[in-house]
Amino acid sequence: MSDSDAIPFGAAIAGDVLSAFQLPGGNTLVKGADAYIAKKRREAANILIEEISNGYHGSISFEAHDVDPLIEITLRFSKAVADGAARANLTFLAQVIAGLKKNRALDAAKFRKWCGILEHLTRDELLVIGMSYAVVRRIAAAGTSAKDDFWQQLEPALIKAGYRKEEVGALCSSVSRTGLLAPASGFGAMVYLATPWLDELGTIVDIETAMKAERT
Which of 18, 56, 69, 165 could form a disulfide with 26 if both were Cys (CB 3.0 to 4.6 A apart)? Predict the structure, then answer.
């Protein structure tokens, strides 16, 4: 059974159970699951087409040699859809595909790397990543003489956004599993630093704009 069949298969089991106990709703549940899967597939396809046609990276054109990697990448994207990735996560993944092509780096292995990082991030984790990248941008814009005070900027920014101090540490620890942030010791406490992967992600995904939209 493929991942894309998981929800209808589960609905079929639930339908059988309802029927066994002579409870109403079995057939409706199966039909509803089928309709839900079809809707999710259409939405995901539209997200991908929009990002490639005229998204964050502008209009992207593919060539004959892109067919094989694009098929493999699209199949992996479809798995993320089947596994229930949220719209924001799917938008990021679509931007990754367009960004890899724009940077002449359309490669299934590279997409799988970013897919593994992005597809299951929660809304809170995505916000942490967006705010982290905003801090990185501010430090870079300040020039070479700027103090590298990433954590000193990120922690109060997250607290101001409504997270308690203990939540900030837990969230950053959770994000660090992706390799976008890295834990470090600082003044007797755990702090978190941006990694090169966060910079790399920022070149292919519109993190800050997406995070602003996610918070509204």
Answer: 18
In whole angstroms, what separates CA 98 from the centre of its chain? 14
The answer to which of 2-6, 10-14, 87-91, 160-164 has the lowest mean pLDDT is: 2-6
Q: Which domain holds residue 142?
A: 123-215
Provide the 10 A C-beta neighbour count for residue 166: 8
Nearest residue to 132 (alpha-carbon basis) of 196, 53, 69, 81? 196
142/103 Cα distance (integer angstroms): 27
Which amino acid is present at 123? R
Given 90, 118, 146, which residue is the final one in a domain?
Answer: 118
In this predicted structure, what is the pLDDT of residue 83?
A: 86
Position 36 pLDDT exceeds 50: yes
Q: How is residue 148 written in tokens? A: 């590298």
Mean pLDDT of 196-214: 81
- The sign one gets for the Cα dihedral 103, 108, 110, 111 is positive
The CATH number given to whatever domain includes residue 207 is 1.10.10
- Residues near 76 by beta carbon (within 8 Å), at least 6 away in sequence: 108, 111, 112, 115
Closest CA to 148 of 174, 201, 184: 184
Which element (helix H / strand E) includes 112? helix 108-118
State whether 13 and 108 are in the same domain. Answer: yes
Do residues 10 and 33 lie in contact, with contact meaning Cβ atoms separated by under 8 Å? yes
